[in-house]
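Work Package 3 (structural annotation) set out to generate three-dimensional models for the target panel prioritized at the project kickoff. During this period the team completed the workflow that converts sequence records into C-alpha cells, so that structures can be stored uniformly alongside our sequence database. As a representative example, we reproduce one entry of 314 residues exactly as it appears in the project archive.
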Amino acid sequence: MIERASDRWVSIILSVLLHGTLVVALVYGFWTYRQSRPPTPTLAIEATVVDARSVNGAALKEPPAPQPPAPTPAPEPEAVEPTGPPQPTPEELAQREQALQEQAQKEQAQKEQAQREQAQKEQADRDAADKQRQAEEQKQQEEAQRQAEEKRQALQKQREAQEKADAERKALEAKKRAEEQRVAEQKRAEAAQRAAEEKSRAESEAELRNSLAAEEHANQVRSSGALVSWLSQITARIQHAWLRPPSARSGIQCVLHITQAPGGAVLSARIESCNGDQAVRESIEAAAYRASPLPPPPDPSLFERDLEVTFRPD
C-alpha cells in the first residue's frame, strides 16, 4: 500500500495530540499534588519594639552586663485547616495512571481505527478509481474496436465498390472487345462473302465461258461428224460383243441407254424400246457390259455419261 502525504500528516497530528494530552495530565496531577500538601508550621517569637533614639543613647552609656535570657516555653502548634483538595492516595494515583493508559489506549485504538477506516476509504477510493479506470479503458477499447470495425467495414465497402467498378469496367471492356471482334468478324465475313461471291461469280463466269466454249466446240465437233463417228464405234463394239439368241428375228431395232464412267467403263445398260423379245433384250444389255470399256471419244468435249445407242444388228 502506498502511503500518501495526508496520511503522514494525520499520524503526526494524532501523535502530537496524544503527547500533549499526556503532558497536560501530568501537569494537572503535579499541580493537584502541590495544592494538597499541608503548610509548613511557623514558630511564635516574642519581641520588644525599641526606639532607635533610645538605642543610640543607651549605646553611649556603659553597657550593662549581659543577662541570660529567660527561657520561654515552646508554644504548642496551632491546628491548621487544610486548604485545597486532599492529596491522592497511591490507589487513586494507580487508578489515574490506569485511566491515562486506558485513555491513551483508547485514543491509540481510535487512531488505529481512524487509520484503518482511512485506509479502507482510500482502498475503496482506489478500487473505485480502478473500476472507473477499467470501465474507461473498457469503454475506450470498445470505442477503438467499434471505430476499427467501422473503418474495416468502410474499407470493405470501398474495396467491394472498387471491385464492382473494376468488374463493370472489365465487363464493359470485354463487351466492347466482343462487339469490336463481332464487328471485325462480321466485316471479315462480309469481306470473305464478297470475295467468295466475286470468286463464285468469277468461277461461274469462267465456267459459263468454258461451258459456252466447250458447247461451242462440241457443237463444232458434232457438226463435223465426230460424234456420229464415235457413236458408230460404240454401236459396232456392242454388236461385235452381241451373242444372238435363237429367238432373234431379222429387222431388230432397239434403243439402248448406257451410263459410262470416265474411261469408258459401263456402269449400267438398259433397253428403253425394242421390237425383240425378252431374250433379245437381255442379250443386247449383256453385250453392252461385255463391250466395256467403250472406245473413247475423238475429242474430250464429246464425252457424255449417258448415251443412247440405236442397236440394229442386221
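The CA atoms of residues 215 and 301 lie 8 Å apart.
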